[in-house]
Amino acid sequence: MAVDNLDVASRASIRRTNLGLVLRRLRSRGARSRTQLAEDLGLPKATVSTLVNELVERNLVREGEVQRGGSVGRPRQAVELHGRTLCGLGVEISVDYARAIALDLRGETLLDQRITINAQRDSEVLLDAVAALIARAVESMREQGVEVIGVTVATPGEIDRDAGVVLFAANMNWSRLPVVAGLRARLAADAPPIAVGNDARLGAIAEHAIVGPVGINDLIYITGEVGVGAGIITDGRLMLGATGFAGEVGHMPLDPERQPCACGRRGCWETMVGLSALLRHAADAGDPVRDPDRDLEIRLAEIRTRAAVGDKRTLAALDRIAHGLGLGIGLLIDVLNPQAVVLGGYFAILGDHLLATTRRVVDEHVMAPHAGGCQLLVSTLGFTSAARGAAQDALEPVFHDPGSVSAPADQLSVMRKS
Amino acid sequence: MAVDNLDVASRASIRRTNLGLVLRRLRSRGARSRTQLAEDLGLPKATVSTLVNELVERNLVREGEVQRGGSVGRPRQAVELHGRTLCGLGVEISVDYARAIALDLRGETLLDQRITINAQRDSEVLLDAVAALIARAVESMREQGVEVIGVTVATPGEIDRDAGVVLFAANMNWSRLPVVAGLRARLAADAPPIAVGNDARLGAIAEHAIVGPVGINDLIYITGEVGVGAGIITDGRLMLGATGFAGEVGHMPLDPERQPCACGRRGCWETMVGLSALLRHAADAGDPVRDPDRDLEIRLAEIRTRAAVGDKRTLAALDRIAHGLGLGIGLLIDVLNPQAVVLGGYFAILGDHLLATTRRVVDEHVMAPHAGGCQLLVSTLGFTSAARGAAQDALEPVFHDPGSVSAPADQLSVMRKS
């Protein structure tokens, strides 16, 4: 049969594939013995040992604790992902802040920094600030002996990832902004590779990393800030669509009141449920919660406090948002039939005040019985999802082709496709 | 490496996988020589020859024409899928007709029969009629020496495929109708296996078979009859969702006029663009195009004629439908970013009168530039998509596990998983 006749190229390709399989298994299931890995992957134990040894040489995996399986059998040495040797850096650019998060292979947060910006003002000034944030993060990691193997920048809007350009982001006033080239020009020549991706899609990757291990591999992540976006995970993978634009849910024409939207259209979902709608319903123009120069997290904490003490206007505003959320989420469940919808961004911060009404409206609107079994979850990552997902995205080349990492003990260097 | 150590189970599994690969390649690319197949699949030629011989023995593949590649090299014997030995039977049950289509492995139509029914009246009488249609079709195929290896029934509504039950179909007045058990009880004990699936999802499979070969593997198929449904193909595969309900687009709450819908809600997309909306806008209650006892295809032909002679009311009705279609399709493009949206059902019959307005509204509403490159296509299958897709569905076990077909020359029998 075919398996006896495989040529050298096929063998090399299978080896690389298997290296990635081992690494991804350790990511999804945690520390495991070589014997367990062999069982998991349906590969002979000798093969798995060879693969593990190669990953250890590359500093991607290390020997972990000795596991004792019970009263019989000899103890097994577990292997686990090696932390703190290399990391991915994710940088979210939002309307009023930028955040950098570095994650190592184990998903441990090595760095979390946040700066206040005004993305709508001047994109050159913004790129200066973001480049400085990246440079500081890379330097800080290097000082700790950790190499940043890639940077992924998360922004709202429609993105041409291959070109590194944000084509259009209404709430940022951006049109064809060359984010990657702009950052690269501001960084040192030996800076890590940079990519740019959509914030909601990247956030979905971070959320899936949380709920995937409990068996949720079909989900919609909804992020709420000034804009509203989504990332769709099907069969455990991010749905990109034909040209990478899948998940553009903020402009579904759902609002019968047809409020004008920043995109130039009327009645978009984000005019019903975006942050501006909440603030407009909850407070008059002079109210400090509507002051864009104040930190968003402080303003949301204030809204939480008002809701907690039963402020009628705040509760009515939250109920209105929850209703609008339910309408749009119900529609998305009808179209995609996910196992879960995860609320992120400000929806997560205010989740306990939104969930009951949203759930009721969803159940009323979805055609499938019991909303097709869909769970409604509140993100535990709050405003960090996009930056975390971006950091995971920056690490993906390692998990898909660990052979690209060559590791002479104390000097890691990574070759990535240009 | 691993490939030398594969055990017998793995080898058998690889052989079955490879048999399916060869068969699916012949389906997607047509007749090919063994050498071409080996190149296509990256398998050694000797392996491919063994696989092809096994498929020939099972009567699934046959030797085709001799190909001459040019002035040099010896001529090559092509192999191709064997037609007219076995077939899948697809049966669509719609509100006012049932249609049976038999397709062989080559996708050739061996049978196409249509009966008039009234699905809304009595489900027992309906199942009698459909069972008789199936029995006649199976018998007719048998007389021609063709075995029906499976029957898939396509109906609107939410379906529990494993149980063989339509859970809910508003336009049919069905609730928990056990279609498979009902048909099985009416058919002979040696009748082929029966399954039931959603009409729009099955229609999408048929449409993908048409456009997949030209590279369209991300598409949304929209079917319009009394209800409106969708089937979503991503990466060449039907998206089912977590529990098989993905594509339930008919009840997206898009109509600002909030007309009541058969589902009990208001403002559903199908109240804007379903067949009833078209007929209501196009004609008064007594008009023959609104008479449900007349054949739908004849009524639609009459509407085409009125549009062709410039009847103002008809044109205005079509424009209104086209506008509503554009709104909903634009939303779906934002969410899913497909390469193409294919209009089926009555939208296909009237496509030339709908397309320009629908395209304009789509372009105005989709966030991605040029609607993410999405094409708007009119189905060439008209009202046959669902039955054709169902027939293809019934053939899937062969294409995925050709080893399940055992073929002593003149007596085919198929073992399917129960």
Automatic annotation (TrEMBL), chains A, B:
Keywords attached to this entry: Kinase, Transferase
InterPro entries according to UniProt: ATPase_NBD, ROK, Tscrpt_reg_IclR_N, WH-like_DNA-bd_sf, WH_DNA-bd_sf
Endpoints of the signal sequence: none
Source superkingdom: Bacteria
Domain HTH iclR-type: 22-63
GO BP, sorted A to Z: regulation of DNA-templated transcription
GO molecular function: DNA binding; kinase activity
Family: Belongs to the ROK (NagC/XylR) family.
Name the UniProt record assigns to this protein: Putative NBD/HSP70 family sugar kinase
Organism per entry: Kutzneria buriramensis
